[in-house]
Amino acid sequence: MQIFTPQQLADQASNKYLGVLVAAKFARFVNDFPRDRSAEEKKLTTVSLEELSNGELSYKLVRRRRQET
User: What gap in Å lies between CA 7 and CA 47, rounded to an integer?
Assistant: First the structure.
């Protein structure tokens, strides 16, 4: 099992909290695709953290729009 340090995530994202959020969002995105469950594979969160720490995962921040009432 690979251990990801907060510094590894902060190097690729602007901070460690954003890195964890990006990796979790990507894992949920990948979970929607069909995959072969017969073979033993890594957890999706581990895969997404690996891709983020290796610089293979890019993201874009989008500001939320305020709802006018």
Answer: 18
Query: What's the pTM value of the predicted model, to 2 decimals?
Result: 0.75
Which DSSP string do the residues of 34-52 spell out, in sequence order?
----SS----HHHHHHHHH
pLDDT digits 0-9 by tens, 41-69: 788 888 899 999 988 988 888 888 888 76
Alpha carbons 17 and 38: distance in angstroms, whole number: 33
Name the amino acid, one letter, at 46: T
Sort residue 50 into left (φ over 0), alpha (ψ -120 to 50) or beta. alpha
The full set of domain ranges for the chain reads 6-54
Which residue has 């340090």 as its token pair?
Answer: 5
CB neighbour list of residue 41: distance below 8 Å, 6 or more residues apart: 35
